[in-house]
Specification:
Strand order of the largest sheet: 1-2-4-3
Strand content: 5-15%
Distance between the termini: 40 Å
Shape: globular
């Protein structure tokens, strides 16, 4: 039995032609999204980051438990601590942990263990996943829910006219320690956020074609 009554859905039906226009415009906008590793130190207003996080918080989640918490960092000393700890783990990974197949897959992207953007980007936003809620109850579909919320966040950042990158040094326990997060939270993804550097470049990568991306099983 539901403990709360249902509310009327707020939904405005859109004409198919308008839907197609909106779909094409949104796809064109998102097609321009790229992961960026070269950031400008130009400040970004806090309220813009706040709105991106609020957008992430609208994501669906298992049993509506919302098993996430976002920490936004602009403090230069904390960013320096994060970079030092991240590069320590990344160097170990690149030099000892990653198998050759993984390193070969990263070659076209040109990444290495050095992560200067962790200090240069004006904001670092870390999504923490919560297997146990603040009320002590278990959360469900935590990985899936946080993944969707982070996708919303990336989209919101791009919509703002900013750039970001998904950074996942492994292990990431140091983030919880540096940021003083409780034991029921563990770092999920770290996002540097800001404007791209003036001469920023990105790898010449191709996205999957229509045929590679989707399959249609149409009825009669």
């Amino acid at each position: 039995m539901k403990c709360k009554p249902d509310l009327p859905l707020q939904f405005n039906r859109t004409a198919p032609d308008q839907m197609r226009d909106r779909a094409e415009q949104f796809y064109t906008q998102m097609q321009q999204r790229r992961s960026v590793r070269e950031f400008s130190p130009q400040p970004v207003p806090q309220d813009l980051i706040e709105h991106a996080i609020l957008t992430a918080g609208t994501a669906p989640s298992g049993a509506h438990r919302q098993p996430w918490h976002f920490v936004a960092v602009s403090d230069s000393k904390i960013k320096s601590q994060i970079r030092t700890a991240a590069e320590k783990e990344e160097r170990e990974s690149y030099e000892h942990r990653m198998p050759k197949q993984w390193l070969d897959a990263l070659t076209p992207i040109g990444t290495n263990w050095r992560k200067p953007y962790l200090e240069i980007a004006p904001w670092l936003v870390i999504c923490f996943a919560k297997n146990i809620g603040d009320d002590g109850a278990k959360n469900y579909y935590v990985q899936e829910s946080c993944g969707i919320a982070c996708g919303f966040f990336i989209t919101a950042v791009h919509n703002l006219g900013l750039v970001t990158l998904t950074h996942t040094p492994s292990p990431m326990r140091f983030l919880g320690e540096i940021l003083g997060r409780p034991n029921n939270e563990r770092p999920y993804i770290l996002f540097p956020v800001g404007y791209p550097a003036t001469n920023a470049t990105v790898p010449d990568l191709k996205r999957k074609s229509h045929d590679q991306l989707m399959t249609w099983l149409e009825g009669d």
